[in-house]
Amino acid sequence: MSMTILGVHGVGNHQPGVDPDQAAATIAGWWTAALGDIPAKTVMAYYAHRLRPSRVAQGGADEPDSELEPDIYAWARELGWPDRTPQGMVTAPIRAVVSWVATTYGLDQRLTQMFVERFFRELHRYFTDAERRDAIVTGVADLVDQHQPRVVVAHSLGSVVAYEALWRRDGHPIDLFITIGSPLAMPSVVHDRLVVRDGGHRRPPRVRRWLNIADPGDVVAIPRHGLGQSFAGVEADITTAIHAFDFHRATNYLRSAKVREPIAACG
């Protein structure tokens, strides 16, 4: 019998007008194809529909840019943005900050702007709406109980969701937890907002092994040193190049031997 892998996707996966179960199956198919010949069933925890705008204001978003600015500034500082403005004071326009990141890391300006807006809007909705957050985390915890996966692979914002879900309940042990392109250790933006039992930032008790994998150019996987300095029990922070330009996409991570080999070893 093949093992079960539970995938938890990242931002930008909302499929408007598609039934959530069908959307989950579609994304699971992409992940299965990327993992190749590993004998496993991939189940996807689909939560993107829960992060869609609850109301649409002028400009097409339900949060004004000003609500996203503190997180974007904090993110850019972690990437080396040379901001010398005292905290709390008006600083550079967001577009200028994102342009600096794109130029510094050799990224497409337009695509970087679009990604940053999408990432920080979904992150903002997750952390500022308790009802959304509880529904998302409960849904992933339910899937863990239902499918009892040997492996959990979580990408980008999905690593935040999966981490909180694995703390939500005890029960079926997880042999391997792999975080890819994870922002879990990003100070103030993510790390300090996490909900865990006993106040500790460490490997969830039900997880036997935790590996974190990041492309050196992934501008979401920060701090650059990985998760091990911020979370006790991370077995390894592995740096590997997954793509020359598209170094945050989940399927590029899943094609990497650094991801595939430890998963296959669980089979």
Automatic annotation (TrEMBL):
Listed InterPro entries: AB_hydrolase_fold
SUPFAM superfamilies: alpha/beta-Hydrolases
Highest rank taxon of the organism: Bacteria
Protein name: Serine peptidase
Lineage: Bacteria, Bacillati, Actinomycetota, Actinomycetes, Micromonosporales
